[in-house]
Amino acid sequence: MEELLEILEGLHPDVDFEHETALIEGGVLDSFDIVTLISEISETFDVTISAEYILPENFNSAQALYALIQKLEEE
Known about the structure:
By secondary structure, this protein is mostly helical. 56% of the residues lie in helices and 0% in strands. It has a single domain (2-74), classed as Orthogonal Bundle (Non-ribosomal Peptide Synthetase Peptidyl Carrier Protein, Chain A), CATH 1.10.1200. The protein has helices at 2-11, 31-45, 56-59, 62-74. α1 packs antiparallel against α2 (31-45).
């Protein structure tokens, strides 16, 4: 989780990613951020986030995103 938080904080250092739960719905992350996140997560965690997983609920919080990473690591 720490590595994910570092990636997120690199995009928006002013956001409290540990507590924010509306990253997409609240407009914190835009489409460019999502593309950057997918790339960084792929490199850092050696997982591939396919189009079927690019859903707002998977990117709305650091916790949801980390749960997705863990799911993909198990596949």
